[in-house]
Amino acid sequence: MRASRSWRVVVAWSLASGFALLSVLPALAVAGDELDSLRRALRAAPQDTTRVLLLNSLAKAESLLDPLAAEKSARDALALAERLRWSGGIAEVCNTVGALYTNTAQYDKALAAFHRAFRISDSLGNTSSAARALRNLGVVYRRIGQLDKALAYTRQSVELCRKEGNMIGYAHALSNLGNLYNETKQYEAALRAFAEAEEIFRNANNGTGVSAALNGMGVANSSLGRNRMALSLYMKSLAVREKMGDLRGVTSLLMNIGESHRKLGDMQAALTHEHTALKNAIQLRASDLVLESYDLLGKSYADAGDYLNAYEYRTRYSVLRDSLLNAEKIRQINELSATFDAERREQRIALLEKERLLQDARLERETLLRSLIIGGLVIAIVIALWVYRQARLRKKMNDQLQTAMEELQNTQHRLVHSETMATLGRLATGIAHEIKNPLNFITNFADLSVALVQGFRERWGAGSEEAEYLDTLESNVIKIREHGWRADGIVCDLLEHAGGSSGEFEDVDLHALIDRARELAIHGIRVDSPSFDVSVESIYDPGIAAVRVNPRGMTRVFLNLFRNAFESMQLRLRDTGSAYHPLMHVSTVGNADTIEIHFRDNGTGILQANRSRIFEPFFTTKPTGKGTGLGLSLSYEIIVEGHGGGLALGPMQDEGAEFVITLPRKSADLLSFIPHM
To answer: Contact at 8 Å (CB) between 260 and 234?
Structure first.
């Protein structure tokens, strides 16, 4: 069935792509007429500025159909303008050359051309040409991902055109600004920029500008999830490009249309348009468009469930992207080498000229010049050594300053946190103390009420009518007393939580601290359940020496983890019976910079739904009345805030649960995260 469906998609794509190409052919014929007209004019044109302009116009027209021919025409125009020493023509052609390099992803050459166009235009006071060069620089920097530079150049172009009153240039710059807003996810700002540009272009009957603005609005709407609106805008833009015979513009829009169909779930239409775009891109020899087509086809085939084709196009995409990056590096190296060689040739010519002059000079002047050169070299060497030494000192000072700044920021953070938690601790302590007294009255009067009820029962007899009311009253009073005890326990835990992790940091034997906490926890559980028997296996890393911690805080953490594990295993023992034996593993692992402590039990475990909340204050998985939900919260703060470490749940187990403590090996005495009250 999958093969049949793939065959139908291929047939549909073949038919639809044929129709798409037929729709472009009349427009391409129009473009061909323009090319023929320009070529006829060139045959009769003399070698002057008119020929430069004709060659430049021919390059622009050829760029729609044949980028390689366009590059040749542009190079011929530039060479002629340079022979004529016509600065204005050089700037004009450089803008065209840069655009052609941009379309073929030769961004290093494009940047060089646009920078040259701007320098010449600026020196001539030609603000229109300078604004165009700035706008084009913004386009290149946007494509190579340097969005800050792209925004800066584009905004300069917008301001230049606005001051000059060049509305078409202003609209083009606005359109480029809209593209940058799309890149930076400022879609509403992009829509406003494109709408203003589209109105100017439409009033000026500028098809290229109208199509670009419609395409930009389509991209913004697609990013905002308005895929049908985006598709409508792309189709309108496509109609304009087809009418102009702009095959590159048609190709880019076919990719956008295919992406919109994919987002709308119409995979057949998406593949049809994207395959047509790929054929056009290959025909144009446009590496950037071929790369984008491979990327889109890989995504569409993956969404259609055809993972074989998806893998093929993703592989093509990766290979072409890597080759473009390698080619880019080679071009940069070649360009730098060529520049360096040219500079060396100029220096060699200058040195030869100086040598000729020196030969004609008198011997005394030659000696003096040689002395001056030697002295200059010595001074240059001394200065170079001094600069090198100063640079090393400056780097060392900067490193020290950076380290000091980081330590200062960490200390500031801890101070702010400490002050905040101190305030909260005082508030919690005050509230807890205020609640403590009413709770004592509740529990004490509940005890007295139970005694009174028992006295009334003895007086009236067990079978009397009043005895039934006394039973109900006694039950209510007992519940009041139990909940009073429960609230009193919460208040006590709250006071302990607010008390913080006071105490000094000391170098202690971590393993001895764990063993002491284990013995205390076992003793505590056996007070309530004398028959409870648990095995604790300890595997300690012998390479861990004394560790600098707060012993009181760490003991509290270990006790909490042991008690929680014992209570979990005790609950499972009650539900399972004698076939189950409680077992706990405690281990330590020493790493280069940290120490890990693992606590793993075979108790009831922690449900997946509760794992994300396990360290929240007042959240507990224990049965009602058995826990306050503050133990793990306090432990987390002691480890993370007090010791700069980490406390986390281990991976899900088939049975039981695992907690992992991470402590830094070398840690200074951190400020107590909650000051002692």
So the answer is: yes
